[in-house]
C-alpha cells in the first residue's frame, strides 16, 4: 500500500470519528489522531494553535456546540507530497451540512440548515497529524442568515458545486504522470502571475490566462467576492478589481502545494502581501499593508485548468486594517 493511500485511509477514519463525536467527546478524537505538538492553522478568529487541546477549545467545541448533525460533504479528496519540503499531505474540500442551532462567533443562529464551505489540509508523519490547515468561509455563513458585512460582490456567491466530472474524491492511487502534468501547469500559472506582480501589469490581456486556463473556466471565489465563469468575466468580476485595488503585491510561497491526478491544491500562511489602494471588495484604500491567507484547489482537463475553488481568510485581511466584521456583527446582533 502506498503512503498516500495509507494516509487517505487514516484521514477518512479521522473524519468518521469526528462525525460521530459531540462537543464533549471531540477532544478525545483529536488526541487520538493529532500529535501532541500539532501545528494548526485556522482562519480568523481561530488563527494558529498548538496541540489537540488548544484546537479543541478554540475551534471544535464551539463549532459542535453551535452546529448539530454535522455531515461532511466532500467534493475533493486527495493526497500527495508537497514539493517545497517533501511532506505528506491529505486534502479534503467541500461543505459541512449542519443544523445551525446556536449562535457562532456572534453570528445569530437560524435554526435551519446551513452549508459551511471548508478546505482541510493535514500533514501526516508516523501515523499522526503533525500540521493542519483549516479554512472555512465565515462570510458565507453570515450571508446565509441575512448578514452582509461587505458591499455587493463583483462575482456571484452561492452554494458551489463540486467538480463537473464528479471524480474529485480520489480513494485510489492516481497516475503519477497525470499529477506531474497538473503540477507543471499550476506552477506555470503561478509564475505568470508572479511576473505580473513584479511588472505591476494589473490590466493584463486575456492571452496571459489562456496559456494555462480554459476559456470557459469556472472560478469559485469566497463569499464577498463570489464566483465567475469564463476568462472575460473572471477578469472583469475578480481579477481586475483585485489587482487594480492592491499595490506592491508580493507572493510569499506556500506551506503546502501538490497535485494528484487531474487535481492540485495549495495553501499559504500568508500567500500574498499587498497594500489596498481602494476598490477591492468595494472598500476604500487604507494604505495599511496586509497579508492574505489563501486556499486554491484546481481541476485540470487536458492541457488547461478548468475549475478553481478558492477560499480567502477575508475576515483576517480586514482585521489587519482595523475592521473586525465579526465583532461588528456581534455588537449589532447582540447589543446588550
UniProtKB/TrEMBL annotation:
One of its GO terms (biological process) is polyketide metabolic process. Residues 13-131 form the SnoaL-like domain. This is Nuclear transport factor 2 family protein. InterPro entries: Cyclase_SnoaL-like, NTF2-like_dom_sf, SnoaL-like. SUPFAM superfamilies: NTF2-like.
Amino acid at each position: 500500500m502506498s503512503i498516500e493511500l495509507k494516509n487517505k485511509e487514516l484521514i477518512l477514519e479521522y473524519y468518521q470519528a469526528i462525525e460521530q463525536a459531540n462537543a464533549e467527546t471531540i477532544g478525545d478524537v483529536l488526541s487520538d489522531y493529532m500529535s501532541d505538538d500539532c501545528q494548526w492553522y485556522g482562519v480568523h478568529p481561530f488563527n494558529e494553535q498548538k496541540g489537540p487541546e488548544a484546537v479543541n477549545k478554540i475551534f471544535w467545541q464551539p463549532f459542535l456546540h453551535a452546529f448539530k448533525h454535522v455531515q461532511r460533504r466532500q467534493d475533493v479528496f486527495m493526497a500527495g507530497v508537497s514539493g517545497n519540503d517533501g511532506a505528506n499531505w491529505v486534502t479534503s474540500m467541500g461543505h459541512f451540512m449542519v443544523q445551525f442551532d446556536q449562535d457562532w462567533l456572534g453570528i445569530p443562529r437560524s435554526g435551519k440548515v446551513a452549508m459551511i464551505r471548508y478546505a482541510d489540509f493535514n500533514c501526516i508523519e508516523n501515523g499522526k497529524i503533525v500540521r493542519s490547515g483549516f479554512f472555512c468561509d465565515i462570510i458565507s455563513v453570515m450571508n446565509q442568515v441575512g448578514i452582509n458585512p461587505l458591499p455587493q460582490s463583483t462575482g456571484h456567491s452561492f452554494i458551489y458545486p463540486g467538480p463537473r466530472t464528479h471524480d474529485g474524491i480520489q480513494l485510489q492511487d492516481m497516475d503519477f504522470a497525470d499529477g506531474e502534468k497538473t503540477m507543471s501547469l499550476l506552477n506555470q500559472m503561478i509564475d505568470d502571475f508572479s511576473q505580473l506582480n513584479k511588472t505591476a501589469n494589473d490590466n493584463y490581456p486575456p492571452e496571459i490566462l489562456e496559456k494555462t486556463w480554459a476559456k470557459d473556466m469556472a472560478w469559485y471565489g469566497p463569499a464577498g467576492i463570489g464566483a465567475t465563469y469564463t476568462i472575460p468575466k473572471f477578469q472583469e468580476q475578480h481579477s481586475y478589481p483585485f489587482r487594480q485595488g492592491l499595490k506592491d503585491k508580493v507572493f510569499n510561497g506556500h506551506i503546502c502545494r501538490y497535485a494528484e491526478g487531474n487535481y492540485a491544491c495549495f495553501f499559504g500562511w500568508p500567500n500574498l502581501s499587498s497594500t489596498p489602494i481602494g476598490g477591492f471588495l468595494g472598500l476604500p484604500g487604507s494604505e495599511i499593508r496586509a497579508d492574505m491567507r489563501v486556499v486554491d484547489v484546481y481541476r485540470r482537463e487536458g492541457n488547461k485548468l478548468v475549475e478553481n475553488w478558492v477560499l480567502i481568510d477575508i475576515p483576517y485581511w480586514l482585521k489587519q486594517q482595523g475592521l473586525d466584521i465579526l465583532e461588528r456583527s456581534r455588537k449589532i446582533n447582540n447589543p446588550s
